[in-house]
Structure formats: C-alpha cells, structure tokens
Amino acid sequence: MSHTPSNFRAILLCADDYALHPLVDDAVQQLARAGRLSATSCMTTSPHWQQAAPALKPMRPMLSVGLHFNLTEDHGGQHTAQALGQVIRQAYCHQMSPVQMRAAWREQLDAFEQGMGTPPDFIDGHQHVHQLPGLRNAMLEEMQSRYATNEMPWVRSTAPAAGLWRSPKAAIIALLGGWAATRRLRKAGVPINKGFGGVYGFDAPDATTYGAQMANWLPHMAEGGLLMCHPASGIVEGDAIGQQRPVEFEYLMSDAFGALLQRNDCRIHQGPVKAL
C-alpha cells in the first residue's frame, strides 16, 4: 500500500446490511480486500447470518464488524418485522414494551456474538431504528449490562456532518432521533462517530451519478466522520434498493473514487476505530 500523507483526513465508510443476501456479502468482502471499507454492519436476524459470519473473521481488525439492529426487514417472511412507519409511530407514542425492546436487543446481540465469537465493534440500526425513543434507552441498558467491564462498542450517530443537514432526508433522519440519540450517547460516555453522511434517495441511475453524490459528501466529512453505503455485486431481487446496490459497488471499487478521495484529502480508515 502506498504511503498516505499524514494530513489526509481518516473517514469511516460502512457498508450496511451484511448477511442480507450473498451478493451484499460478496461486495463487502471485495471492498474490504480492496481497502475501500472501514466497517460493515450485520443483520443477525437473517437466516444466512451464521453461514455468512465466518468470512468476516479473518478481515478483522482492519475491518470493523458491527450489529445492524433490525425491526423492519422480514428476510422474505422468515423474520417477524414491521413497517418503518409503524415502528416510528409506536416509539413516539410509547407503545413499545421495555421488556420486548430489551429482548430484541439481547437476541440480536446474542446472535452476533455466536456468529463472530466476540462482541460487536459498533452498533447501528437498519433504517436507523436504534435511535428511536425507548429503543435507544434499551440499547444503552443492554450495552451497559453486557460490556461495562470491557471496551464499549461505538454507536452510529446520524447527526449530519456540518453542511449536510440541508438535505431534507438527512434532516428528517436527524430529527427522528438522530440528534436526541447523539446527546444521550455523549452523556452516557459511549463513543460515536464525528458526523454522518451518505444519505440520498437511492436514485442514482449510474456510477457517475452516485459519484456526484460522493463528491458532495466528502468535503463536509471531518476526521472520524462516517459515511454509510449499501453495495452489492449484483441486483438483489425483491429488495427495495436492490437495483441501486450494484451502482454503489461499481463506484466504490472504481479508480474514480480513489481519485476523489485524493482530491478531498481523505482516506478510508482501516483498523480499530479507537485509533482515530
């Protein structure tokens, strides 16, 4: 690997949805081997999780591996799930049982630890449900119960990087618990990323158009900031963003992305996040 100037900003690039589908897993593994990923977050509710997990083990610690807490993906009817709008409504109307919320966190963290043999390096949520009222408190309680005597996983903050809050979708995500969860996590002393990006409408028709989105995000990313992505090495049939995933993968593997990182004085961090 060529020498990277010390003044380059180290940013985190996380591929969500590992174990959702073999094409997602393949993309994550290729990107990690190419040095184009910092992290991947894993859907332990997937029936494929236990078979998919071993491929990640030799990639650590250069690749951080986390839990992608899920309440809204049913994996083709193989997991109990709810629509995102229903989950949001129940959370804000305080209609979720604290016992059930803790049980959901416990079950998914147990599955992660069974698959990987260790606690997660970090935690985030599918469609950002980890940050919703009630669920964020249940997350903290379960984390403190499990990991208080060990190194605490870091948690994804969706508070937008400076300048990116002007995106309506990014602002909505931040309003729906992103800013509140960030304040709660800081108060609890839980490590978080330093700003968030990667939010768009999953509507880029080709790699060049997705690259234009990346060119908008990168100048706003601070050292330790986090960009999310959703790659797959082919179209994932039946997935809401299944057509978009290979577009992201093509760009993230491209020389154009490497050149864009250079122009913005950025590098993809690999290794323990505590080193940032």
Question: What is the overall silhouette?
Answer: globular
Which structural category fits the helices and strands?
A: alpha/beta
Number of strands: 8
Distance between the termini: 19 Å
Unreliable runs, pLDDT <50, ≥5 residues? none
The helix-strand sequence is: EHEHEHHEHEHEHEHHE
**Quick one: biggest sheet?**
8 strands, parallel
Average of pLDDT: 95
Number of helices: 9
Strand content: 5-15%
Residue share in helix: 25-40%
Rg from Cα: 17 Å
Quick recap of the structure?
This protein is of the alpha/beta class. It is built from 9 helices and 8 strands.
Keywords:
276 residues, alpha/beta, 8-stranded parallel beta sheet, globular
Description of the structure:
It is a single chain. With 276 residues, this protein is α/β, with parallel strands linked by helices. 38% of the residues lie in helices and 13% in strands. The protein has helices spanning 22-33, 49-52, 84-92, 98-116, 135-147, 168-188, 207-217, 245-252, 255-263; strands spanning 9-18, 39-42, 64-69, 122-125, 154-155, 196-197, 226-229, 266-268. Strands 1, 2, 3, 4, 5, 6, 7 and 8 form an eight-stranded parallel beta sheet that branches. Strand 1 (9-18), helix 1 (22-33) and strand 2 (39-42) form a beta-alpha-beta unit. The longest helix is centred in the middle third of the chain and has 21 residues, at 168-188. The chain is globular. The mean pLDDT is 95.
